[in-house]
Design brief:
Helix content is 94%, strand content 0%. It is mostly helical and 100 residues long. The mean pLDDT is 85.
């Protein structure tokens, strides 16, 4: 084998080994990035669920207060609808005034 060819093959082998090391490092960084991204989202979801668990009793109170308020408003509307017509009351007042 020619000495020049042998040197080129040796240099090519060294470059291949160096590229292999760099590619392994890049792949390791990709794996760690993927792992940290998963951990990041798990933390975000965990914080959201924890906050909901912590705030849930307050939310239930607010919802029950809203429902009670809405029920009260409906009762007032029904009460207003059940009142007699005002024109009848005016007629009664006129009759009372005439008698006096």
């Amino acid at each position: 084998m020619d000495k020049e060819l042998r040197e080129m093959l040796q240099e090519n082998l060294e470059l291949s080994r160096e590229n292999n090391k760099l590619l392994k490092k890049v792949r390791g960084v990709q794996k760690r990035t993927h792992l940290f991204r998963i951990i990041y989202w798990l933390v975000i979801i965990g914080i959201a669920l924890g906050a909901y668990y912590y705030i849930q009793p307050y939310l239930e109170k607010i919802v029950s207060m809203y429902n009670d308020g809405a029920g009260s408003i409906l009762q007032l509307q029904n009460f207003g609808n059940s009142l007699p017509d005002v024109s009848h009351l005016q007629d009664l007042l006129k009759q009372v005034q005439v008698k006096q």
